[in-house]
């Protein structure tokens, strides 16, 4: 015998926080590559984004600042959204400078928002990466342009390695092929490093790389918009609403 349907009063009420309601149950992680408050408020409530990524160029473009105060305010903004993680690039010319900056950034983490520190895939960056990981700080090795840099990220224990698809293509390299190779390297290793594909120019690039096994991406608000505004979907949605109005009580 089928169980009797439960009444509204007998159902267990589950309260879900904004952060825990983000897309954390999927192996796929999507990040919004932006520090623009309007873009964050527009796209993160959809629940499809695991977090937000920034770097000094993005902060400059979005009228931000490379200061702890600015990052702290951005973190507070994200705490009101479905968001698990904020990735911020350490600034400084030496490994020591990046390490010290990274520690200060990591101290901004809260129970709701995890901070991941980004460092470039240079010798100084890898040295800072090693020091930060030793201190328990999660790190993304960024500005990755070739598969051998992924090997170095795996060896040092970075949580993410971020290749730049569009910039590789702009430089005449096979960005797609290189990233597929990078993904194969991490899948064949026993490490936990994720390939965080950046510098995407279209949602179609994202889908094509996902078909090759990539599952972690960061992209601009312009690309994010492509996820939600297919013309056929928009037409269907309008048709649904029109029908609802025609037959509504």
From TrEMBL:
The record's InterPro entries line, in alphabetical order, gives: Aldolase_TIM, TAL/FSA
One Gene Ontology BP term is: carbohydrate metabolic process
Keyword annotations for this protein? Schiff base
- Taxonomic superkingdom: Eukaryota
Q: What is this protein called?
A: Transaldolase
Q: Which species is listed as the source?
A: Pycnococcus provasolii
Q: Top-down, what is the taxonomic lineage of the species of origin?
A: Eukaryota, Viridiplantae, Chlorophyta, Pseudoscourfieldiophyceae, Pseudoscourfieldiales
């Amino acid at each position: 015998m089928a169980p009797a349907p439960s009444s509204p009063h007998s159902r267990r009420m589950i309260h879900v926080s904004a952060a825990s309601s983000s897309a954390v149950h999927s192996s796929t992680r999507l990040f919004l590559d932006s520090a623009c408050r309007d873009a964050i408020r527009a796209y993160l409530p959809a629940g499809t984004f695991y977090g937000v990524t920034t770097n000094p160029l993005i902060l400059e473009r979005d009228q931000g600042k490379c200061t702890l105060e600015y990052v702290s305010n951005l973190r507070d903004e994200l705490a009101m959204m479905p968001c698990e993680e904020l990735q911020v690039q350490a600034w400084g010319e030496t490994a020591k400078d990046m390490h010290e900056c990274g520690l200060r950034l990591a101290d901004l983490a809260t129970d709701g928002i995890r901070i991941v520190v980004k460092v470039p895939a240079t010798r100084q960056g890898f040295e800072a990466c090693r020091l930060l990981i030793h201190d328990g700080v999660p790190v993304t090795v960024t500005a990755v342009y070739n598969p051998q840099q992924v090997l170095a990220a795996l060896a040092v224990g970075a949580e993410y390695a971020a290749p730049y698809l569009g910039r590789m293509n702009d430089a005449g390299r096979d960005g797609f092929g290189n990233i597929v190779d990078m993904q194969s390297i991490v899948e064949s290793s026993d490490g936990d490093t994720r390939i965080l594909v950046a510098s995407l120019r279209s949602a179609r690039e994202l889908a094509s790389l996902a078909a090759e096994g990539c599952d972690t991406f960061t992209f601009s608000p312009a690309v994010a918009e492509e996820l939600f505004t297919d013309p056929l979907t928009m037409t269907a949605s309008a048709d649904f609403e029109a029908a609802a109005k025609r037959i509504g009580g």
